[in-house]
Amino acid sequence: MSDMFDYLEWRGDLTFRQAPVNMVDNLLFSCMAYVVLQDIVGGMHNGDTKTISEAAMEFVALSEEAKNLRDKNDEKIFVAMAETERFGDLHLQYHVQQMDTVAEKQFAAITVALDDGSHFVAYRGTDYSVIGWKEDFNMTFVSGVPAQLEAVNYLNAVAERTTGPLYVGGHSKGGNLAIYAAAFCEPHVQERIVAIYNNDGPGFLEDVIISSGYQAICDRIYTYVPQTSFFGLALEHEEAYTVIESTEHFLMQHDPYSWSVKGAEFVYLEEVTPSGKFLDQTVRGWLAGLSAGQREQFVDAVYELLAHKDTATLQETAKYWIANAGELIQNLRSVDDDTSEMMQRTLKLLGQNILRTAAMQVMPKERLKLPDVFNRRNKEGLKESLE
Questions:
Q1: Any bridge partners for residue 59, and if so which?
Q2: Structural domains in the chain, sorted by start
Q3: Structure confidence at residue 370 as a pLDDT band (50, 70, 90)
C-alpha cells in the first residue's frame, strides 16, 4: 500500500496553485512540525524565513544530537518534501519551540507560506520529553493547559502577520492544539480558517465541546483516526471522524508513517476495530468514574513516581528505572497511606471497567487481540486481586 513518500513522487510536481491543500498535504506538514528548526527558521519576532529546501539542507548538516529526532522518518520526509516542486520552494516562518518544566508546558509550531497565498499553521505533537507527556495527561482533568493557550496566542499572532486563507493542523497532541486554537482564536481569525486537521489527536472535556468557539468551527474540523485508535478517541469529540487504514498493529498505528495513502487521500475503513472500541470504551468509562480532582491527583502521583530530577526524556526515565529498580520499588512501597489508597481505588476502577467492557464485547476473543488476562478464568482472579 502507498504512503506519504509515494504521494510525493506522484504529486510532487504540482504546485498548490495547481492543486490546493489536501489531507495528505496536511499530514506532511504535521509531520514536518516535529523537525526541530529552532536555529534554522526565524521565530515570531524574527522576519527571517527559509524555503523548505534551504532549511532541509541546513538540518541535514547538523549533528545527530542537534537534530534531536523523534523519528528518523521525520528527517526523511522533510528531505523528500524539499526535493519536490510542490514543497521545496515554500517558505517556513515563525518557528516557535517552548519547554517549561514549572508550567508543565511543551509547545512547538511552525507556519508554511503556500504559493497560492494561503498559510498552513502546523502544531507539533508530543515529543519524548517527560513534561510533554505529563501535559498530555493534564488534559484529562483541565481545559486550557499551557500548550493549548500558547496555541491560541500563536495562531492570533500568525494571523496578524499574514493575509489570506489559513489552514491549521497537527498530529497527536498537535491535532488537539489545532482545534483548540481555532476554537478560541479571535473571531476575525476564525473567519479566515478554511480547515482544521486533527490527525489522531485526543478530544476535549465537555466545557470545550459546548463552547461557542468550538461550535463555530466544528464543521471545518477533519479528524482522522487509524483503525485501532487509542489516542484519537480519548476524551470527547463532537465532530465526525474518519477511520483510515494503518499498516501497523495496535497502538503503533498512531505512527503517521504507517497510514495508507491512495492518490491525494487516505485509505478509508468503515469503522475502528474491536480492539479500538474496547480501548475507547474502557478509558472513557474509567475517566467518567473519576472527578477532575481525582484525575489530577492520580496523574500527579504517577508522575512523582516515574519522574526523576535527573531525567528529562522518556528514554532517560526508562534508563534510570532500569539502573535503580531496587530503590524505585522501595519508593513505591513507601508512598503515604492516602496516596496509596487513592492509587489503589483508581486502579481498581480501571480494572472494573476493563472487565465490564470485556463482558460487553460480543466479538470472539481472538479478534479482540488483547492479552489472555481477559478470559473467564483470569477475570475471576483479577476480580479477587482488586477486591
A1: none
A2: 4-272 (3.40.50), 280-386 (no CATH)
A3: very low
